[in-house]
Amino acid sequence: MLKLIGGIMKKNLFLLLISIIIISCGPEKEELTSADYEKEKQEIIKVMEQYTHAVENKNFSELIETLATEVIFFGTDSSEVIRTFPDFKMKMEEQWKTFDKMDYGDMYDISIQMDDRATWASIIYGSPLTITLNGNSVKLFVRIARTLKKEKDRWVIVSGIVGNVLPEQALELQKLLQSKGQTPTEPQQTNK
Asked: How far is CA 76 from the centre of its chain?
């Protein structure tokens, strides 16, 4: 009986070893060529431009096309974490009602990191942002960070955060908000 059990164990061990060898000798995951990597980077930049265009035009339908099925955005204060589409839509509508116009400039210092199979990516960049309220404008320079993933063969935004770079510009924005009667104690989110 022990001989039979020992034989079965040896046979199973042998099959396990063969399976490991076959799996490890299988095809390696395909890495992107330089040209493919550049193409994916351009697709990511296009998504960010589409997002910006939608924000500037206050077009939620266009905006939603750039987002993953589940998203998380971090606002300008530590308690503002947006986890659902209804919350995201509410925040965007608040922002659009608060500001007459938001104009983003060109993207600067773009850094894109991507996994070898182009399924996940991170983009960080800077952009000028002009916010107009009651005919008065404030010029900001913001840093934007987004995480993207591929869903149905297209890049979509999974998460993001925007930060104002210069404190004096944030003070100018607060003054502009005060002129409209907004209370600057709760920072306004600039979702880009």
From this structure: 16
- Find the distance separating the first CA and the last CA of the chain, reported in whole Å: 71
* pLDDT value of residue 123: 97
Q: How far apart are CA 65 and CA 184, in angstroms?
A: 31
Average pLDDT per 10 consecutive residues for the chain, totaling 192 residues: 53 58 59 90 97 96 94 82 90 91 96 95 96 89 95 95 80 77 50 52
pLDDT computed for residue 163 by the predictor: 86
Contact 99, 133 (CB under 8 A): yes
Domains and CATH numbers, the chain: 33-180 (3.10.450.50)
Q: Strands 67-74 and 108-114: what pairing?
A: unpaired
Say how far apart CA 27 and CA 12 lie, in whole Å. 25
Contact status, residue 141 vs residue 107, Cβ threshold 8 Å? no
Give the closest residue to 58 by CA, choosing from 104, 95, 105, 106: 95
CA distance linking residue 119 with residue 150, whole number of Å: 5
Under 8 Å between Cβ of 191 and 91: yes
Encoded tokens for 95: 């922002």
**Token pair 């800077």 in the structure block, residue:** 126
